[in-house]
Amino acid sequence: MEYDVLKENTKIAHANHQLLKEHNIRSVDIMGSIGSGKTSLIIKMAEKLSKKGLRVGAIAGDVTGDDDFKRMRAGGITVMNCNTGHECHLDANMVKKVLKKMDLHAIDVLFIENVGNLVCPADFPLGADLRMVVISTTEGDDMVRKHPDIFLHSDIAVINKADIAEYVDVDINVVKNDYSRLTGGVLKMMECSVKKDKGVDEIISALKLV
Ligand SMILES: Nc1nc2c(ncn2[C@@H]2O[C@H](COP(=O)(O)OP(=O)(O)OP(=O)(O)O)[C@@H](O)[C@H]2O)c(=O)[nH]1
Ligand SMILES: [Mg+2]
After folding, report:
1. Ligand that comes closest to the CA of residue 195
2. Among 77, 168, 186, 191, which one is most buried in terms of CB atoms within 10 A?
3. Alpha carbon of 117 to ligand 1 centroid (Å)
């Protein structure tokens, strides 16, 4: 019998979404390249959201280890670690298992940090309200041209590390223009520097978290 992995993933993702909605949790699947600043952005957003009285939870998705888990925990986030073992992306079933162990009554916002990768996560929705892709200036100016799918599967796209763009010879406008072109001029890529706390409030607004 043929087993359709993507179809099954979509079914579980719908159930995850339903469960999160039943608990009034707003959720974001944060995808993006390795080291683009996903964890840093989650911690910065959590700091800002908790000042507004929101309780932030997270799932730290990584192939192995608990580095991001520990950083998020130190940032005051109610976080669960999720190691994929070998897989280059989270899938809805992994998230389902983690959600079962989480106290969903204790959080208002859930950030799911996907494995750093601009290819595989695109095909596996997890059940979050929104999907965001985070790249950074250090990857160069050609990420949208090389990995269009993940941008097309995301509601929001961010380019981080604006503070060092000039040192890595990247013109952020080139990336932004590629993204605008890809989305038919409908969406604009957001720019931020988590390090300098620039553009993070705008991302929180775009995610409709406050
Ligand atoms: N200059 C600069 N560095 C940043 C910024 N944001 C994050 N970093 C640094 O980039 C490195 C990677 O950041 P992380 O937040 O771990 O990135 P990540 O996307 O979670 O990485 P993985 O989970 O390993 O894929 C760290 O050394 C951060 O301090 C920024 O806005 N500017
Ligand atoms: Mg990380």
Report:
1. 1
2. 77
3. 14
Q: How far is the CA of 175 from the centre of ligand 2 (A)?
A: 22
- Contact indicator for 15, 127 with CB cutoff of 8 Å: yes
User: How many angstroms separate the CA atoms of 194 and 198, rounded?
Assistant: 6
Q: What is the CATH number of the domain that holds 137?
A: 3.40.50.300
Q: Is residue 116 part of a domain?
A: yes
Q: Which residues line ligand 1 (CB under 6 A)?
A: 32, 34-40, 68, 116, 160-161, 163-164, 193-195
Distance CA 133, CA 121 (A): 10
Predicted confidence (pLDDT) per residue in 146-162, tens digit: 999 999 999 999 999 99
Kindly tell me if the per-residue pLDDT of 2 is higher than 90: no
Whether 209 is in a domain gets the answer: no
Q: Which band of pLDDT confidence, cut at 50, 70 and 90, is reported for residue 3?
A: confident
Please indicate, yes or no, if residue 11 is contained in any of the structural domains: yes
Q: Hey, what are 151's tokens? A: 């941008």
Ligand nearest to the CA of 33: 1
pTM recorded for the entire structure: 0.98
Between CA 44 and CA 29 the distance in angstroms is 16
Residue 1 has pLDDT above 80, yes or no: no
> Distance from the CA of 195 to the center of ligand 1, in angstroms?
9
Ligand 2 centroid vs 80 CA: distance in angstroms?
A: 13
- Residues around ligand 2, an ion, CB closer than 5 A: 38-39, 68
C-alpha closest to that of 111 among 152, 78, 70, 63? 78
Domain of 77?
Answer: 5-204
Count of domains observed in the chain: 1
* Confidence at residue 165, expressed as pLDDT on a 0 to 100 scale: 98
